[in-house]
Design a protein that fits this description.
DUF5785 family protein; 106 residues; two-stranded antiparallel sheet; 5 helices; alpha+beta; DUF5785; globular
Amino acid sequence: MDWPHDPDGEEGSEGRRKYGQAIIAKKIDEDEDFPLNKAEFVEEFGDEPIRIDYERVVSLGEIFEHVDGEEYGDFVEFHKAVGKGMREAGYWFYEGAEQFVKGKSA
């Protein structure tokens, strides 16, 4: 896929390789963006690349296909929903991520 910018470049990861949820969190202004509407957020950033691990890059929109909720009241609620969705979709690359999904709610 052709990305609007290099996921490892300055715009994608602030000059250092960062992964997944850290890149998504950087798109949020905690003081101004809440409550945050999922559809509007995906419309604005959906085509942007998110590096999942050292091999895989997916779009933010693809990640949000697995994130529950339509609106998030604050950063913690948003962060929990994104993390849960990423774990359930297999977008967490560390060993043991599945233990945080089974029977847990965001």
